[in-house]
């Protein structure tokens, strides 16, 4: 720094302030030269802002105002390129074309890109040739070799170098690693390890169960290795099926039909395996499938007997005698030896009670007469086994139908009573009846009806056959009376249409009942009960009246018992602390059994008469002229009610005859001094008031009832 005021005599002093002043930068106070005390790093700070000033050394006055200047740090190539995200992992499909992009890597350089070539980076490949290449400017990695096969080599390691100074000598460099994996494509068809296979399957193999497996190999992975197996020849496809196990990619061979060694001993299967996901880019390689031949040999197994039919249906008439032939079953040994067969019934079924089978011929016979109405169908199981090998069993279901014969007489369908209205007219249909028969008729049940011929003509009812398996009961006379005769019996004979025809007699009960219009029953069951008991209407009224009187007496008795005051002492043994609460409103003037408050209103008399509070006080007779209202008021004024209550408390504590538990005695003192007086008779117990209550009639209708009550009371006193 230099000031125009500096004459070179040392009278000017230079000072420096700002960023790094005194630490990084110092100034010679005399000459104004600025020096750096340490090395500078442009990557940490690119410039510094400083302030300089010239002062008079003697007076310390500023010769010039402060001047600002900036020191810029010039860059040099002291930072090597770096890959901040490395190492890298990348994938590329196998068999990719040359130049297929794999990954782009980018290196950074901390040097100044605007100054020189310090930050100019060039990329090169150090490892991974000749399979991959890198663009020197962009850093894009590409495939450099065609037809790279994953099945031959799957993983590659590529090292990329980034060098600054545009790759010139003396430039700094950095490197990173890229792990490249070839992904699979479907470029390999499935192949069977061998062209011919053999398999042994016994003829007893179950249908639908696996009998063997076969597998074709595919070098691809994932869905590119999925294989679908199929049987392409009809001989094998008719007897066998094949499916693919997704986990193992094996072809599972199953049996579609039962094998029979005696019919066919060998089968040839042409099996084809095809990839399910094709890549059209590799169609030039040919069909992605392979075939193999499987020869299946059927093994001979001793088999159980085979019945001629899958099931049998037989029939026999009911009531047939024991030993009647029902039918026959036939079974044979399917093996070449043709061993004789033995028949028997399954002992676990109930059909063994009704049937038996000849063990040699297979003829089924009855063991007892059968009843179709009891069980119309029987299901039995016939079992067959070879005589040489009894352990091999076969079963066949046999259904036996029991044919019907006419062995049950018909009967009337209903057992309910027939209601006959009292107002029935001659010729009126009382009811239509039908019949039922347990037997079965192929052309429908047909019944005929009639009254018994051996009985005299019924004067009350007759029967009409409607010739449609129904009959109508018709009244023969006018008006019935249930009081005269309530029940009638009507026997009816019914014939069925079977061969031979059977008949049965049923007796219907007809009940006479009063009916309303249109034949509606008014009352039947109640009157029938009374009539059967022989009770008349008057007797019924008398019985009902007696019942009402008894009920009234019971209610009155219960009411009196409830109104009676319960004693405080319930039992001598029930000794415990109780609080007895009386919460009743009372019965007014007519209630003579409520709490006796005379003692409270007349303390002097109560002092003379000490009676138990837990029992009902006896009625007292008053002698002499009744005290006047004035005298009672004087007595109440002279007696302190509080003192009276204290005396009662002392008596209750000292009296040994009182209950041994706490007794709550409540006294209510209304007070005195009402100018209108009191109309209650409590102030003068046992006496009659001399007051004239005729003025109550003048008070209006609201007090009419009260005036009548006191008027009646005065009339009674006068009488």
From TrEMBL:
InterPro entries assigned: Cadherin, Cadherin-like_dom, Cadherin-like_sf, Cadherin_CS, Cadherin_Y-type_LIR, Catenin-bd_sf
CDD domains in UniProt: Cadherin_repeat
Membrane-traversing stretches: 539-560
Location, primary (coarse class): other
Signal peptide interval: none
GO biological process, one term: homophilic cell adhesion via plasma membrane adhesion molecules
Entry keyword set: Calcium, Cell adhesion, Cell junction, Cell membrane, Glycoprotein, Membrane, Metal-binding, Repeat, Signal, Transmembrane, Transmembrane helix
Subcellular location: Cell junction, Adherens junction; Cell membrane
Pfam family, one: CADH_Y-type_LIR
SUPFAM superfamilies with a match to the protein in the record: Cadherin-like
Chain intervals for the UniProt region annotation (Disordered): 668-692
Superkingdom assignment: Eukaryota
Keyword Calcium among record annotations: yes
Polar residues biased stretches: 673-692
Any one GO molecular-function label of the UniProt entry: cadherin binding
Function of the molecule: Cadherins are calcium-dependent cell adhesion proteins.
Identification of the protein by name: Cadherin-12
């Amino acid at each position: 720094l230099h000031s125009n005021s500096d004459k070179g005599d040392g009278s000017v002093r230079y000072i420096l302030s700002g960023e790094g002043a005194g630490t990084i930068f110092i100034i010679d106070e005399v000459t104004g030269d600025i020096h750096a005390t340490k090395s500078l790093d442009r990557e940490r700070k690119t410039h510094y802002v400083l302030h300089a000033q010239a002062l008079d050394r003697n007076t310390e006055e500023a010769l010039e105002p402060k001047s600002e200047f900036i020191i810029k740090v010039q860059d040099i190539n002291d930072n090597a390129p770096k890959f901040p995200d490395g190492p890298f992992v990348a994938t590329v499909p196998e068999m990719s074309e040359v130049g297929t992009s794999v990954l782009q890597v980018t290196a950074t350089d901390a040097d100044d890109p605007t100054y020189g070539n310090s930050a100019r980076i060039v990329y090169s490949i150090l490892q991974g040739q000749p399979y991959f290449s890198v663009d020197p400017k962009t850093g894009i990695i590409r495939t450099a070799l065609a037809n790279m096969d994953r099945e031959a080599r799957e993983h590659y390691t590529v090292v990329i170098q980034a060098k600054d100074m545009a790759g010139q000598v003396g430039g700094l460099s950095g490197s990173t690693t890229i792990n490249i994996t070839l992904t699979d494509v479907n470029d390999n068809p499935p192949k069977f390890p061998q062209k011919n296979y053999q398999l042994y399957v016994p003829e007893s193999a179950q249908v639908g169960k696996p009998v063997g497996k076969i597998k074709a190999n595919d070098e691809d992975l994932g869905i590119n290795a999925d294989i679908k197996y199929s049987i392409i020849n009809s001989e094998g496809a008719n007897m066998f099926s094949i499916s693919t196990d997704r986990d193992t990619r094996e072809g599972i061979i199953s049996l579609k039909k039962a094998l029979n060694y005696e019919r066919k001993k060998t089968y040839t299967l042409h099996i084809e395996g095809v990839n399910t996901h094709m890549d059209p880019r590799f169609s030039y390689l040919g069909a992605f499938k392979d075939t193999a031949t499987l020869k299946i040999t059927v093994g001979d197994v001793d088999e159980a007997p085979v019945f001629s039919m899958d099931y049998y249906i037989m029939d026999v008439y009911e009531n047939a005698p024991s030993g009647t032939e029902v039918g026959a079953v036939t079974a044979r040994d399917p093996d070449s030896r043709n061993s004789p067969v033995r028949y028997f019934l399954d002992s676990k079924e109930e059909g063994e009670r009704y049937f038996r089978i000849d063990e040699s011929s297979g003829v089924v016979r009855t063991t007892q007469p059968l009843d179709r109405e009891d069980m119309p169908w029987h299901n039995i199981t016939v079992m067959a086994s070879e005589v040489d090998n009894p352990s091999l069993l076969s079963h066949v279901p046999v259904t036996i139908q029991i044919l019907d014969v006419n062995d049950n007489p018909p009967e009337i369908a209903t057992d309910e009573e027939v209601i006959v209205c009292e107002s029935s007219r001659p010729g009126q249909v009382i009811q239509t009846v039908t019949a039922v028969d347990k037997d079965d008729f192929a052309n429908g049940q047909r019944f005929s009806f009639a009254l018994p011929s051996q009985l005299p003509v019924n004067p009350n009812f007759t029967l009409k056959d409607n010739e449609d398996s129904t009959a109508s009961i018709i009244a023969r006379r006018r008006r019935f009376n249930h009081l005269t005769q309530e029940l009638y019996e009507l026997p009816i004979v019914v014939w069925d249409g079977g061969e031979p025809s059977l008949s049965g007699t049923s007796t219907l009960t007809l009940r006479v009942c009063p009916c309303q219009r249109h034949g509606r029953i008014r009352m039947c069951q109640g009157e029938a009960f009374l009539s059967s008991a022989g009770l008349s209407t008057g007797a019924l009224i008398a019985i009902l009246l007696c019942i009402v009187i008894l009920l009234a007496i019971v209610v009155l008795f219960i009411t009196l018992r409830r109104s009676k005051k319960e004693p405080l002492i319930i039992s001598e043994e029930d000794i415990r602390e109780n609080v007895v609460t009386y919460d009743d409103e009372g019965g007014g003037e007519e209630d003579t059994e409520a709490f006796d408050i005379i003692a409270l209103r007349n303390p002097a008399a109560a002092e003379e008469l000490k009676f138990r509070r837990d029992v009902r006080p006896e009625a007292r007779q008053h002698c002499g002229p009744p005290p006047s209202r004035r005298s009672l008021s004087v007595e109440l004024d002279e007696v302190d009610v509080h003192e009276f209550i204290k005396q009662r408390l002392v008596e209750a504590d000292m009296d040994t005859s009182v209950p041994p538990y706490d007794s709550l005695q409540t006294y209510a003192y209304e007070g005195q001094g009402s100018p209108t007086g009191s109309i209650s008779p409590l102030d003068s117990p046992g006496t009659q008031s001399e007051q004239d209550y005729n003025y109550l009639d003048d008070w209006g209708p609201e007090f009419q009832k009260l005036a009548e009550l006191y008027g009646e009371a005065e009339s009674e006193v006068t009488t």
